Amino acid sequence: MTVLEDIIAGVREDLEARRAGIDDAAIRSRALAAPPARDAFAALGGTADGTGRDTVLRVVSEVKRKSPSKGALADIPAPADLAREYRDGGASVISVLTEERRFGGSLADFDAVRAAVDLPLLRKDFTVEPFQVWEARAHGADLVLLIVAALDDGPLRELLGLARELGMEALVETHTEDEVDRAVSAGARIIGVNVRNLKTLDVDRSNFARLAGRIPPSAVVIAESGVRDADDVAEYAAHGADAILVGEALVRDNAPADALRRFIAAGTAARPPRRA
Ligand SMILES: O=P(O)(O)OC[C@@H](O)[C@@H](O)c1c[nH]c2ccccc12
Fold it and tell me: What SUPFAM superfamilies does UniProt report for this protein, alphabetically (predicted)?
């Protein structure tokens, strides 16, 4: 069993436990009653013709307590306070991990962040069932995560379609050429290249440059994982990242807002001219 399969088995068990407490009809009506989703694609600089590439490097800042590769990363007594720091530092989107077993996240963390800031929020979890998409919207999410390695084409399209029906977008995460091509043909317009292989947890930053060029300019390209400092940000930006997704380096920093400002400045300065 790969790490990814192992995580998903736990996610499915936890999902069944939550479903015992709230039925499908109830979660759907909560989702439909929630205030409308914010436009995450625009917040990330996306435009239909790709002109967003002229603008600043955007950051998706993550609330991440622990990870399967590194264990505990930071004590986060109040996710709402961290979220306000992220907002003040210029985050475009905040990602909140809700996977409990390996990442120490929860929907309670998500709710706390939702109550504290008005930015678009990514519900970061291993989304494998439509119920999780309804649930995300019911909690005020604007984006869900769809990991191509975890989904066949049918479910990938179905979950992406449902997210959009509910007014949300999806961050469609890839790690190989084939996954990028599957994301593009499914119609994804926010595509992440995760330099961490979720089957082995190995990080290879050079993967980003290799894969980013396959993504059409109409999509927002997000470099995910492995940012240690402003030099890493500049490198991703130079290779075509419109945005970066950062967890560890921000949660470990005593002044995350300042770190964010440095990342945004370094990434914006390194961005190449817009691709034709
Ligand atoms: O902490 P890092 O190295 O900055 O990585 C953040 C983010 O990319 C990582 O948390 C992540 C990327 N894809 C995921 C899928 C599920 C859970 C977590 C992730």
Answer: Ribulose-phoshate binding barrel
- The string of pLDDT tens digits covering residues 195-243 is 999 889 899 999 999 999 999 999 999 999 999 999 999 999 999 999 9
**Helix, strand or coil, per DSSP, at residue 97:** strand
Question: What residues line ligand 1, using a CB cutoff of 6 Å?
Answer: 62, 64, 103, 124, 173, 194, 224-227, 245-249
- The Cα–Cα gap between 139 and 109 comes to 11
CA distance 120 to 142: 6
Non-local (6+) Cβ contacts of 39 within 8 A are 120, 142, 169
| 3-state SS class at 59 | strand
Q: Whose CA is nearest to atom 13 of ligand 1?
A: 194
Atom of ligand 1 nearest to the CA of 224: 8
Residues labelled as active-site residues: 62, 64, 124, 173, 194, 224-225
* All structural domains of the chain: 3-270 (3.20.20.70)
